[in-house]
Amino acid sequence: MSEGGRSGVQVAFHLNAADKTDYSCRLLRKAYLKGTRCQVLGPEDDLRALDAALWVRGAGEFLAHSTDDDPPAVRQRSLLHLGRLAPEGLRVLVILGETDAPGDMVDVDRVIEVVSTLESDKERARLRWKRYRQQGIEPARHDVSSL
After folding, report:
1. pTM listed for this prediction
2. Which residue ranges form the domains of the chain, and what is each CATH number?
3. What is the DSSP string of 30-89?
4. Over the stretch 38-54, which tens digit does the pLDDT of each residue have?
């Protein structure tokens, strides 16, 4: 089956990210500037690190975002959400590691899996890749080591 797979969702694995937090910040910045609504899922430690990084980016690079701790009205206005309680209208789901996805990607156009250079992260990504394929989705592979 094509990269689109189930319901037309596109899945891409961004492999060999030397620093997942930094890479995710750059990825989210591009989405934010395009006005794309994104949700980020992953281990709590990764989400906390990303939340902190989005606050302390360089001058003029702060990206407004919400977390599960924010009130619903804040989450609804935010283009970027870190956590499970995302608002409606999301177009992109960014996954930083272990999560319940791909079952959670019901209403998104794209799923981006960010995978570090750590062998443990790569092994978990291989398992998620297999789960996508079992659902009829053929993920795309992008090596981001040179970015």
Report:
1. 0.89
2. 6-143 (3.40.50.10110)
3. HHHHHT--EEEE--HHHHHHHHHHHHSSSTT-----EETTS-HHHHHH-SEEESS-PPS-
4. 999 999 999 999 999 99
